[in-house]
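Recap from last week: sequence in, structure out.
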Amino acid sequence: MIKFQAILLVAFFTGIFGRQLIQSNIFPFDDDIDDENDFFVPPYKDYPAMARFLVHELDWSPMGTISTLNSIKGFPMVNVISIADSARGEKSTGRIFFYLTDLDFTGIDLKSSNRLTALFSMEQSRNCSDHSTDAMEPTCARVMVTGTAKQLQKNDEEYDFAKKAMFSRHPAARKWIETHNFYLCELDIAQICVLDYYGGPHFVTPEDYYKADPERVFRKRLNHFDLQNIDEGEELERRHHKKSRSLHIRIHRDVDEIDIEV
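Predicted structure tokens:
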């Protein structure tokens, strides 16, 4: 019971400061987020970094289009689309690659009206509900990326990179492309909307989105038991001692230090 209460306190305080800890050794969650890396979610005011973070760490997106189906023509329609911005374990690019086929209504819709919005939510990893946060809460980060689908040609410079990225994250795609005439696309971004804390959505330009440096912000691949210096002036340090079973968190924003014994 004490341990359970302590974990809830940790989730509460980290939620307040715009960060949620995802670390399989301490809080073991089975999710879609890349488990090869340990990281903190970016600070809630770094909207370009949050957008890049979710796009890179998630492998699929609910993608909305304008329907061409006779019964709901002109209505919004949504579908699950597998995506990749790089091969698994490689650096973030922010570029959203995906396969489409004209046998599926998403491909057909985009041929009629090439406008789409891709949603990326922290709840796709179950990280919000696992921390007792509802998926609709503003602190359950989400990013809406709007633009058009650009079909990539085999002689395009980025074609091989995109194909490798998709096959790395979605091995089953190898079976789709020939059988069902799938073609490789990239989302040509027009607008990015980020909601990751109270106060309403924030809009990020494609330029700022691509300029964001996830490796600098996330500081991935840090020591499993000593995460520190996450961001200048906004340090968050965690140490886990198995023998004493204590968890020490130091947050430099509005409070100096929190000690929780578990």
